[in-house]
Structures are given as structure tokens and as C-alpha cells.
Design brief:
The structure is a homodimer of 248-residue chains. By secondary structure, chain A is α+β, with helices and mostly antiparallel strands. Chain A is built from 9 helices and 4 strands, in the order E-H-E-H-E-E-H-H-H-H-H-H-H. At the A-B interface, strand 4, helix 3, helix 4 and helix 5 of A face strand 4, helix 3, helix 4 and helix 5 of B.
């Protein structure tokens, strides 16, 4: 396998979906940190899903990832999305320096993590190893409960957090990786549940305003228009299935 | 509400289950950190589920928890189990000091977090807001896939991590909160899936040995026999339902 990126961070994630990797990409892009999205390289340069899967076991003698995404930063191999963001936050000022500040930012991120896992399970309530088409009836039931109770609970929480924030961002004046992740939550929900969002998103005005502020950050605007950005699709976490999207 | 614990940490968690709070309790107990398990106090001293639920909104003007557990440490209010452990790990030497070490320990903990969420969803595959009895058919299907694919995937991963560890513990010579959490994973699986574990646990010899080493740590042994320790039951995360436990 070629070494594509001496000196640069390497992001290793499934090459065809935004998925959990997107939360990391948004942080790298916003902070203008040079990185290589390794699995998206041609296969003869180390890209592709097979190479990614095979790398999990051998990327490090000891600190092996359970699953993508993982980040290589010199000798470090860091997995778990929120852990990668914690690392980037400390090293690249994407979160406050003080203990209360970085703990709070990470706490919010872990709540985003919980939400993302629940989003995934709307289309895979029975088995991650089987297709959505083989668990459609259960997916409809789970997603009904998700729309009715879980989206409002999580978005209501994020809205309350923003109501209490001392400024435009969750930490006040400084953009953090948690702001970028909340942007992605709104993006994903609008993609997966457009009818639900059309009717209900107005209840979360501060969250929508945060979303718009993130979208207007010049490096984010530019990233979203670049070929580095992968559109949502039905292999990822936020998927659009007409049967799962209802206004109520 | 009384202030039960000036100067001590306050753990706030549902008072009748081990649940996610148990991962925090194990760390506090192992490190002999004085704490008050607030919701287990009498109601006139601030205990009880109602007071816990009501506290979420007002425990801090800004850094409010999404859900229990949370830890009050002086002015800090820290939520999300893995985040609490990250904090305790740094402050009380429950994880290595160096960047690679604390990141790795946290990464493992976040994988435990993922597993625990999947354990919960075996008995609640459709809706966290409804009873198990109202989603039994789907629970049987989800748990069949969980036993067949997910337990082996997670335990196989933890086993591999321990095979590669440079000593008795995940970080070699020093006990970390991740070791304590892996102990709890084995405890929980043996409670919830005794038939499955009886047949399969021998495939995870290093994990079982780690479990036994943790159980033999004097402060853990003593904690498990104390009234501070709450037994597993069918309101928690690891639940025993005969219909969900099969050897295959």
C-alpha cells in the first residue's frame, strides 16, 4: 500500500457515504487542516473499502479501531468519531481550552453520537447485517416512535442548550466541533425526514439559526461545494425512505 | 433540597438500577473517591427519581445533561458516562497521562458505550418509551441477531485488544476505568444471557481473566458486597428475559 500522506493527517472512512466520517471532515475542513481521505484514493494508492476493512487489524500493533472512522496523526491512531473530535479540538482550537469548556463540548458531541446511532437504527431496527428491505415493517414502527418522541427530545435539548449559550455558538463566541456537528444533524434530518422537518423544524429556531451560521462559514461553504464533500445517499446513516418520512 | 455532599463528588443516576451509572460507580469505588449517590438518598435529602429528573434542567445554568448519569464535581456538571470517566481518569490516575494512552482508553470506553446501547436495544428495539412486553416479537428478532453477530463481534474485538496489551490490563500495568468497564460488560452478559455465555464465553479467555482480576481487586470485591452496589434487574440495561437467552 502506498503511503499517501506523510506529514498529513489521514482520515480512514467508508469512501461513498458522509456517515460518521462527515463529522470529522467538517472539523478538518473548518480548521483548514490538511488531510487525506484515504479510502477515496484509487485502489493502487491504498483506497477502497477492502483496503479500509483490512487495515483495521493492522493499522497499529495495539490501539486497533473497532470500526471506521479512524484518524492517523503521526504515530497516533485514533478511532471513535467523538474521540477524534476531542483530539482535533485540543490540538487545533476547535473547542475551549479550559476543563469545563472541553468537557462540555465533548458531552454535547457524545449526545450527538447517541442521536446518530438512533438515526441509524430507524432503518436497521433488527439487524445491522441485513438490508433495510428485510426489516421494513419494524423500521416503520421504530421510525414512528423516533419521529414522535426521539427527534423532539434531542432537538428540544439542543435548542435549550442554544437558548442558554452565551453567544452565537454553543460555547459563546468560539466555533467548536460541536457546532459543526449540530449543523450536520440538521442537514441529515432535512434529507431523511423532509416532510417531518417541513412541519416541525420551526420549533427549533435557534438550532436552525446555528445551522445557517455554520453553512455561511466560508470554509464550510466552500467544502460543501467541493468534490471532497459526499452527498447523502441510501447507504449512509441519514437515508431517505419515503415510507419512513411522515409529517406526524 | 438539602445539600448532601459539600466537598464530595455527587453522582446523579437512577436509584434502582446499575445501568450506565455502574460504570461510574466502579471507577469511583476502585479509586476510593468519596462520593454521594444522590438519588439513593431519602427524598427529604434530595433523593428519588422525581428529584433526579427535575434536576436535569436546573443543575447548571448552561451545561445541562441530556440524561443521567451526571457527576457534580464542585462547579463542574459532567454528563455522558464516557465523559465522566474521562474526567475521573485524568484527575484520579484512572487512565494513562500521555496523549496516546488517555485517547486509547477513552476510545475503548466509547466502544463499550456503543455495545451498551446495543444491549439496551435488544429489549427495546422499537421504542424506549414502551414496555418490553409491547415489543417482544421484535425483541426476539433483534436479540437473535445480537447473539449471533454483535456479541461475538464486540467480545472478539475486546479479546484481540487484550491479546495485544502489554500486560494484565488494557494499558499494560496500570488499571484503568476501561478495565473496570470490561468487567461490567462480562457481568452484564452473564446476567442477561446465561445460556449463551455458558456455551460461548470460553472463546474469550483473556476477557474472562481480566474480569476475574477486576473482581479480585480488594476495593471492587468489597464494593460488590456492600449495600452501595445494586443488583441487576429488569428495569436496567442488562435484563434477563428467558425468551431472549438462547445458546445459539
Amino acid at each position: 500500500m502506498a503511503v499517501p500522506s506523510a506529514g498529513r493527517y489521514e482520515l480512514h472512512y467508508w469512501p461513498t457515504i458522509p456517515g460518521r466520517g462527515e463529522f470529522v471532515r467538517l472539523a478538518l475542513e473548518y480548521a483548514a487542516i490538511p488531510y487525506v481521505d484515504v479510502a477515496r484514493l484509487p485502489e493502487d494508492e491504498g483506497g477502497g473499502e477492502e483496503a479500509l476493512y483490512a487495515s483495521l487489524d493492522r493499522v497499529h500493533p495495539r490501539t486497533i479501531p473497532f470500526a471506521p472512522p479512524y484518524l492517523k496523526a503521526g504515530e497516533l491512531v485514533i478511532a471513535q468519531t467523538a474521540n477524534i473530535l476531542l483530539f482535533l479540538g485540543k490540538r487545533h482550537a476547535l473547542a475551549p481550552d479550559d476543563e469545563a469548556g472541553w468537557l462540555w463540548t465533548h458531552q454535547l458531541q457524545l449526545t450527538v453520537t447517541d442521536f446518530v446511532a438512533e438515526v441509524h437504527d430507524t432503518h436497521h431496527p433488527i439487524s445491522v447485517g441485513e438490508y433495510y428491505e428485510d426489516q421494513k415493517a419494524e423500521a416503520a414502527k421504530r421510525t414512528a416512535a423516533f419521529r414522535k418522541s426521539r427527534i423532539p427530545k434531542f432537538l428540544g435539548y439542543f435548542e435549550k442548550v442554544l437558548e442558554r449559550a452565551a453567544g452565537d455558538w454553543v460555547n459563546g463566541k468560539q466555533v467548536s466541533y460541536a457546532d459543526l456537528s449540530l449543523f450536520q444533524v440538521v442537514q441529515g434530518l432535512r434529507y431523511a425526514f423532509p416532510r417531518w422537518m417541513h412541519k416541525h423544524e420551526k420549533n427549533y429556531a435557534k438550532l436552525l439559526a446555528l445551522h445557517d451560521r455554520v453553512a455561511a462559514l466560508p470554509r464550510i461553504t466552500s467544502y460543501l461545494q467541493s468534490p471532497r464533500h459526499i452527498a447523502f445517499n441510501e447507504d449512509g446513516i441519514f437515508r431517505y425512505y419515503k415510507a419512513l418520512d411522515r409529517a406526524d
